[in-house]
Amino acid sequence: MSENVKSLVDVPTEEFLLPGHAACAGCGSTLALRLTLKALGKNTIVTIPASCVSVIQGPFPLSSIAVPVLNVALPATGAVISGMEAVFRFRKEKRKIVVLGFGGDGATADIGLQTLSGAFERGHGIVYVCHDNEAYMNTGIQRSSATPFGAWTTTTPIGRYGAGKRHFKKDMPAIFAAHRIPCIATASVAYPLDLMQKLKRAQAVGGPAYVHIHCPCPPGWRFPPSQTIKLARLAVGTGMWVLYEIENGDPSTLRITVRPSKRRPVAEYLRAQGRFQHLPEREIRQIQKFVDENCERLGLEVARAR
Amino acid sequence: MKQALTGNEAAAIAAKLARVKVISAYPITPQTAVVERLAEFVANGELDAEFIKVESEHSALSACIGAAATGTRTFTATSSQGLMLMSEMLFVASGLRLPIVMANANRSLSAPLSIWCDQQDSMAVRDSGWVQLYCENNQEVLDSVLQAYRVAEELLLPVMVCFDGFILSHTAEPVDIPGQAEVDEFLPPYKLPNPLDPCRPVTMGPVGVPECYEEFRCMLQEATRASKEKLIEVGRAFWKHFRRRYGLIERYRSNDADVLLLTMGSLGSSAKDIVDSYRKRGEKVGLVRVRSFRPFPVKELIDALGSAKAVSVLEKDVSPGSAGALFLDTAAAFINVKRAPLMLDFICGLGGRDVSSLHIREAVRAATRAAEIGEVRKAVRWLGLREKLVGLRI
After folding, report:
1. Sign of the CA dihedral B160, B165, B169, B173?
2. Chain B contacts of A65, Cβ < 8 Å?
3. Are the beta carbons of B35 and B63 closer than 8 angstroms?
4. Looking at residue A35, which CATH number applies to its domain?
5. Which CATH architecture has domain B249-390?
6. What's the pLDDT tens digit per position in B102-156?
7. Which CATH architecture has domain B2-242?
8. Which of A18, B24, B235, B280 is most buried, taking the most CB atoms under 10 A from its CB?
C-alpha cells in the first residue's frame, strides 16, 4: 500500500468495512469509517462509543468491521484508547498498531470531551476521528454542541418561541489545538484523497492525532440520500466547513488543504437542507457573517461569489 | 517478611507483587496513598508497569478496560464518589468479562460531604457484576488482592477488594509480605483467551438484541455463582502457598451460639472482642463475618446461622426505604428454609461514626431479648444515633 494517497491509484483496494452493514442510505459517517479504515489499514484496533456506528457495524453475532472492535460507553473513548495504547507501549509492540477512537460529535464535543482532553494532554500515541454529523443522530436528531446555528433538531424545534439552535457550533479543532497535539486536521467525505492523506499523517506522527470529518446525514439534515457528497462539497465550497491541518497547535503551521476557487454564499448550502428551511434572511446573514469571520481567521482568503 | 503497613500500602504492594502491567487511577481520600505508592514503585523501577494518571475515575476504569481488552493485567483503586463516577464503566467491565481488579477504600457518599468510612459506596454498585470481597485487616487486604487476580482471570470476572476507609486504609498493622517468587508461583502470568489483536480480529461489546441480551446476563450470573467455588479453591491454594486461610465467610465461636452477630469488614475484629467477653461469662454469643458479599454465600450462611436463635446484623450501609443490604440478602437466604433464626438489622457507623463496644453489646442484647420472647418487634434499627439531633425517635 502506498504511504501517501496522492491519486485514486494510491487508494488501497482492501475494504475493512464490509457490505451488509446497517447504515442508512447516503450515510456520511459510514463513508468516513470506510475511508478511515482504508487509510489506516489492517493493523488498526478501533474503539467505538455508543453512536450510529454501534448500529451500523451490526448486532451480535454479526459484524461488518474487519479489524478488532471494542464498543464502549459514550463518554469513555479517550480513556479506553489511552489504556490500550499504554499496553502496546509497555510491550514495545513491533507491529505498528494504530489505536483508533471513532466517535460522533456528541461523544467528542459533549459527553466525551473530558476523557479526550485527558488523553491528548497525556500525549498517548492515538488517532481519534470525530465523524461529525452535527447532532445526536442515533437517538433521533437531538442538538449537540456541534450542531450549527439555526439548525432544526428535535430538541431545537420550530415553535412560537423557538426556531432552531440558538448557539454556534463548538470549534473542536481549536480546542484540541490548545492541547498542542502534533496533528490536527479537518476533513470531509466529499474529499476522500485529502481525508486519507490526513489519516496517513495522523498515523505517522506517533503522538495524539485528531481528525474531524464533516459527515452529512440525510435523515438528520433532511435531504435526499443521493445528495450527501454534493452537500459535503457545498459545505467546503461555502466555507461552512474548512479543510485544514495544524501541527502542534501552532497557528503559523495552519495549512488550508482544499481551497475553493470562489466561495459560494452559505444560503446555497442552507437552502439545500430541510433543517434550515425555517431560517429568516436575517439569520442567514448572521450565519454568513460568522462564516466570513471564521474563513478570515483561518486564512481562507478567497473572494465570495455574488 | 513482616512490616507495619496501612491498608493502602498493603493494596499497593499486592498490586506490585501481582506484577500488574497497566495501572490507571485517580486520587481520592482515603485511597490516595495507593495511587502514590504505585506511582513511586513505577518511578523507582520497583514495578515495571505503565501508570496512566487519568483525569477522572470514569477514565481510570475506562483505561483499565482498554488495557484489559488487549489481554493485560490491570489494577485500579478508588473510593466513594470515585466509585460512583465509575459505575457506568463497572457494568461495561463485567459485561465485557474483563478480569480487572480494583481496591476500594470504603467511604461514605455525599451529600453531606463526608470523607469517612462506611460501606455505602460499594453497596450502591453491588449489582454491577463485580465480585466483592470485604477485608477485616490489612493482611487480608494484601492477600485478597492476590487471590482476586486468580479468581478474576480464571473466570473472566472483575473483582473489587473493599477495605474500610481510614480504619484500615490509614491504620498501620503488621502485615506479612510474601516474597515475589512465592507470589509468582501462586499467580502465573495472565493470558486472555480472545484479546484485541489485529492478527485475529474480534468485536467486543456490540449491540445485544433482546434475543440474546438476557443470555449474556445469565452467563454473567452463572460465572459469578461459579466464583463461589473458585474463591474456595483459590483460598485453598493460597493456604498451601502462604499458610493463611480464607473462605467466603469467617466463623468465630459460632458453632454452638444462640446469638450471632453478622457483619462485614473491619467491624469483624471489634465484634470478636465483644464475643470473647460474652463467652467469658458463659454466654453463647458468636460472630459470622461475610467476606464475599458477591457472590453471596447463601449455603454457607444457612449453615452458619441456621442453628442460632437470633442474629443481629451490623452494617455500614442502608437502602433508604428498605433496610441494610447485608440484612436483606441474609433474610432472603432463609426464604425457603424451614428453620430460620430471628433477624435484626443494625445500621451503624455511617459517615465514619465510631461503632463502640457499647453499640455492639446493644446489638447482642437486642438479639438475646428477641430470642427470649421469640419475636422481633422492630427489625431495622440504628445504632449510636443522636436522636435529639434529628428530632426523631427511632
Report:
1. negative
2. 201, 203
3. no
4. 3.40.50.970
5. 3-Layer(aba) Sandwich (3.40)
6. 999 999 999 999 999 999 999 999 999 999 999 999 999 999 999 999 999 999 9
7. 3-Layer(aba) Sandwich (3.40)
8. B24
